[in-house]
């Protein structure tokens, strides 16, 4: 093969990660466009308590889906010149950043509920949300202890890593699914009587649903870019 050309397999892998980056940028832009352009903007302190709520969707999406997705792909997206050790540190640090951003996002929605006198944890979205962020934090801690510091014995690491990868993808899928519930719940609030702030086919309704579809596609793209489809494990053909 000529210098500078990559084998077809890695070119396909490059395409898969490129799709992830494009969808990640699109999801981030869309959720910010919605919360700033249609919902009046983001603020931690405001007399309009909705502005405090508006911090929640972008931070959850950027932390637990966009940054988490990029963190999951960190072992695959860096050029070959980047060492395994550096990739591992990028994976660890990006997941820490995703978790921190997600925690601030959850804090914002609890602050909104407290200041607007709305009860906490009454919805499926809230329950799955607490489970998701807790499992994400536990996954990070387990990964840190097993693979970084103090680090488990080589044999234990070898048997733990497939579980780490599968459970990590499951937690990520929970975040994507719960973001879908969040978009649905918020749109339902906005369309409900008496105010009916958003029409059934209004521009904002279409924007929220379209954003949620992009988030779903992003989740699918991360999983497809991560898994190794291994034909040798199937024997019943
Ligand atoms: C992706 C990860 C997400 C997680 C882990 C998450 C987590 C949570 C949690 C724990 C609450 C409960 C707060 C409380 O009871 O005081 C909540 C509330 C809420 N979230 Fe999310 N959220 C996520 C994404 C989103 C998104 C993208 C939206 C889109 C609009 C959204 C909309 C809402 C709404 C409307 C509430 C308030 C009503 C309720 O308590 O269910 N969430 N979220
Ligand atoms: C919530 C946090 C985390 C999630 C969701 C997560 C998820 C994942 C996923 C999905 C993979 C498979 C990636 C692939 O096949 O390319 C993976 C691999 C791995 N992760 Fe994590 N991870 C997290 C935190 C950590 C931490 C803190 C460490 C500590 C160093 C770590 C170390 C590793 C290692 C060593 C691998 C194996 C990479 C390889 O050999 O290809 N992870 N992780």
From TrEMBL:
Q: Name one GO molecular function term.
A: metal ion binding
The main location is: membrane
PANTHER family under this entry?
A: CYTOCHROME B561-RELATED, OS08G0101700 PROTEIN
Taxonomic placement: Eukaryota, Viridiplantae, Streptophyta, Embryophyta, Tracheophyta
Q: InterPro entries under this entry?
A: CYB561/CYBRD1-like, Cyt_b561/ferric_Rdtase_TM
Q: Topology with regard to the membrane?
A: Multi-pass membrane protein
Q: Which Gene3D superfamilies match?
A: 1.20.120.1770
Keywords for this entry? Electron transport, Heme, Iron, Membrane, Metal-binding, Oxidoreductase, Transmembrane, Transmembrane helix, Transport
Q: Provide the Cytochrome b561 domain boundaries.
A: 19-227
Transferase: is it a keyword of this entry?
A: no
Give any Gene Ontology cellular component. Answer: membrane
Kindly indicate whether the keyword Protein transport belongs to this entry. no
Indicate the transmembrane segments per the record.
18-38, 59-78, 90-110, 122-149, 161-184, 205-227
SMART domains from the UniProt entry: B561
Subcellular location, record wording = Membrane
Organism of origin = Triticum aestivum
Pfam families referenced in this protein's UniProt entry, alphabetically: Cytochrom_B561 (PF03188)
Q: What is the protein's given name? A: Cytochrome b561 domain-containing protein
Q: What does this protein do?
A: Two-heme-containing cytochrome. Catalyzes ascorbate-dependent trans-membrane electron transfer by utilizing a concerted H(+)/e(-) transfer mechanism.
Q: Which cofactor does it need?
A: heme b
